[in-house]
Amino acid sequence: MDTLINQVMTWIWKPISQIYDDAYEEARNLKAIEIYNGLAEVEAGFYKYPSVNLNILPSSGCSHRIKNNIMSGCSMCNYQSDFAKSEGYMKALREKDANLYTDVIIRAFKKARTDNLIPNKKEMLSTYDGFDSFEMPNELIDKLWDVNSFFKEQPFGVVVQVRAESVTEEKLDKLINTLPKRTRITVEFGVECSNEFVRNNWLNKNTFNRQIEEAIRLVRKKGLTVQCNMLIGMPGLTEEVSKKLAVETIFYLDDLKVDKIVVLPLNRKKYTLQWFIYEHLKDNKNLKELGIAQEEHTGIPWLYTVYETIYQVYLSRPYLMPKLLISQMSESNNMIDNDICYNKDSKCICNGEVKDIILNHKSAEELLMFKDKVYNDSCSCADSYFKLLKLQEKAGDAKNVAYIIMDEIKKEMMALGYTEKFIDMSR
């Protein structure tokens, strides 16, 4: 789907595309075993959470981001800018020898888990799309999903990350038949936002509600757990719009009988849309007047907005509490440098207090009762937040503010030397 946001993201990712393409072309001239040996230092990412271990596996890259060695992809996402060279090599190896490609990934996984062979309650095997036949050839599936060969004991559960449009009965059957019997299987994919305009014309996800709903239906039909990721905070959009979209998305997924909803407050990484808005437009006069350009805070939501979103959900549907999993609240749980949400001042004591209640409340009632304490007079952050909400009212709804920001993005790109004709933004 050729859209304005895809055009923008292709330009933002151009320097990384070049690194990837150069590495790929270099590797194509090598023998498969030479590529394999050249990837000896590649290691999987490993993050331990209370009940789940996240294993981020190396691969040939995200097929949604990389098309014909040109990168664009989801505008809010960056899992790969630091790994473009190795992924270029991995793509060339995948084309030459699927078995050696598989061995690189298994070797990287084992290297990361040398001292952690006892599994957590759940093990998340994270690739860009676990159902992508190029990224995940059968040779890799047969070895990777045979998890008993990696651990001292069988994991209770395994989480596989995919894209909604990749979910088919055939892929699900392969998953069920390859993983050890009695292992609980969770299929996870990103929804981000239930609003299709925002998801596809702003986030550049290129995933439609009908695909999400069909994927959920198929996973549930097979008796597996379905877990969906969604965002709080959209790149550049106002706090109120972001909160409204997040609440609507949670209710949408609840209505579809999703088992778990992973709530991800937006963070800011290089080469994302939120990073471009911060890097190039944080002092933009037009956006400052609308409260969108906020100097150092530009491009990431306020922590108060995260709290307000969860508050509104529990107020309307308190039974959702066990279904929501709040994540991405620490910079250290990521392989790419990032900035996470905070209130007016990233060093203010209120950040710790609000984050603690968001992550550690034991009941919906406890979070709701915290309302007065959240907005106490111990700091000026709350006053600044409500002033910002008032200022941002002039920006309007999601579509309107997206058009406003995109106009400024186009001006900035042209000032930086962009010469191609811009596609009209879908309405």
Molecular structure report:
By secondary structure, the protein is an alpha/beta fold. Helices cover 45% and strands 12% of the residues. It has 18 helices and 10 strands. It has helices at residues 4-12, 14-28, 32-38, 84-96, 98-112, 138-144, 169-178, 196-201, 209-221, 239-255, 273-281, 285-289, 303-316, 349-360, 364-369, 371-374, 381-392, 398-415, and strands at 45-48, 52-56, 66-67, 70-71, 122-126, 157-162, 184-192, 225-232, 260-265, 324-326. The chain has an 8-stranded mixed β-sheet.
Which features does this protein show?
427 residues; alpha/beta; 8-stranded mixed sheet; two-stranded antiparallel sheet; 45% helix
In summary, what is this structure?
By secondary structure, this protein is of the alpha/beta class.
Unreliable segments of 5+ consecutive residues: none
The radius of gyration computed from the alpha-carbon positions, rounded to a whole number of angstroms, is: 22 Å
Q: What is the chain-wise order of helices and strands?
A: HHHEEEEHHEHEHEHHEHEHHHEHHHHH
Number of helices: 18
Q: Can you give the mean pLDDT?
A: 95
Order of neighbouring strands in the sheet with most strands: 1-2-5-6-7-8-9-10
Number of strands: 10
| CA-based shape | globular
Proportion in β-strands: 5-15%
Overall SS class = alpha/beta
N- to C-terminal distance: 15 Å
User: What's the main sheet like?
Assistant: 8 strands, mixed
Which percent bin holds the helix content?
40-55%
